[in-house]
Predict the structure of Cold shock-like protein CspG.
Amino acid sequence: MGKSQETFSKKEKEKNRQKKKKEKELKKEERKANAGSSKSFDDMIAYVDENGNFSSTPPDPTQKKVIKQENISISTPKQEAPSPEDLIRTGIVTFFNESKSYGFIRDQQTQESIFVHANGLLEPIKENNKVSFEVEMGHKGPVAVNVKTVK
């Protein structure tokens, strides 16, 4: 007489499969039974009050606020061009290598270190000179141009 081909784990899997099948059929029958008593469309509508909270009551039309279309800003506002006086800054030369023709200026207003190249100089500069300059954006960040010493 041969041993049964069904092992314990096979029996358990089959039991679980049958159990899931019965649960699925019960849920299906329950949905069919409740199909006639579904909520109406008006019961499913949700409203949002002035504070952004959901409510089941519609908002009061007397509390309605009128907003002009011109006052709605969708994008960031354009920046106004700075005046020419704001473009000229002052600072102190913290480092300048004459053989390599570059250096750095510490901006007095922002305390930012700004790169300067000999091409942006109007007159020769040295370390610790007080200078006035304009800032332009270069490939790697801000660059000082039109640099001249201030007395």
The chain has two domains: 10-61, 84-149. The mean pLDDT is 87. The radius of gyration is 39 Å.
